[in-house]
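Please produce the structure of this protein holding alpha-D-galactopyranose.
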Amino acid sequence: MKQAIYVSAPGRINIIGEHTDYNGGLVFPAAIQQSVLCKLTPKDGLGLTFKALDLDDQFTIDLNDDFKPNAKSWVNYLLGVLHQLKKQNCQLGGFELKFHSSIPMGAGLSSSAALCCGFVAAINQCFDLRLSHWEMVKIAQKSEHEFAGVQCGIMDQFASIFGQKDQALLLNCLTEEYSSHKIDLEKYQLVLCDSMVKHELASTEYNTRREECIAGLAAFKERNPSIETISDIDWDDLIMEVAFMDDLHFRRLSFVVQENERVRASAKALATNNIQQLGKLMYQSHEGLEQLYQVSCEELDFLVDQTYQMPQVAGARMMGGGFGGCTINLVKRSFLPEFRDRIQYAFHQRFSLDTRFIEVEIGQGVSIISEDQLPDDSPLLSQLRQDI
Ligand code: GLA
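Below is the modeled complex.
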């Protein structure tokens, strides 16, 4: 009998480049230290058991059963991955999967992508499927499309699988070419502030944004047929179309075109340690997400607005799909305690809620680990280790 496989699959941050991935554009994400830990134990027969330790919930199914989306959202991510593997005629057997996540759920840190990526990597290893990194990325993405109903882009799965310690990855989502960029922020630290608004609603609005972009691109193509994606459009050409396009579509396309430019400029700013410039681009990105793309919310705007009064914060913006989740802030290290105090106080005054802060550490992408490499013990981790 084969040994149990342990896999650690990280969540992600995104320095800049939001809602550009499904528009053939540029993103600049990095894997974080927080991860989903999966333990996959092969079993005789075709029975499958999934155990979500954090939710104290479990689910069983047979490999030969017809897989359909389920009422439990966490189960869908796993069934969605298996569905893709079955479509590709991968030879699988029975197993038990247990997982535990240190990525806060619904906080815009891609806990669901991490689960899909960790799961597909564990299966890949256990059943010797020899899938490439990109194949695993696509399987995890399709699982979200077909079983979770979110027409997500490729950024989250890419960051979770390809992530490199202390590096941000500049990805062209159309060509799938990427480069690694060392994150050296000198006196600054990336800090996330959680708006405490869970972004479940995002799935419907997220898909709407995607449809609006498709419609906007189609309108633009009527007079510019050679253009294939929004990310191919030059700003000057877009401006020429303002009178011929629906205002909403024009705003959505404007955001994407400008955001791609900001990603390019941010990579340069990072390379030259121009933190102030990077921060400025982050603020501009937030403004575009709020006003042109309209995916922010009151709590996120409030968190970003607070930082305008703090010269020790170089930049801030909402991060991820939006409608909740976290802001990402570029904060002087020496100012961190005061930053936390002031934001916490203001947020509590305004919303009668405590926000949560996460100091970002850039971690490694999906890794097969040994039992000894599991982090310090906790009751859930001992459950993960147990063989039953
Ligand atoms: C979510 C999606 C990603 C990406 C971001 C927005 O995280 O899963 O594919 O579109 O939103 O940049």
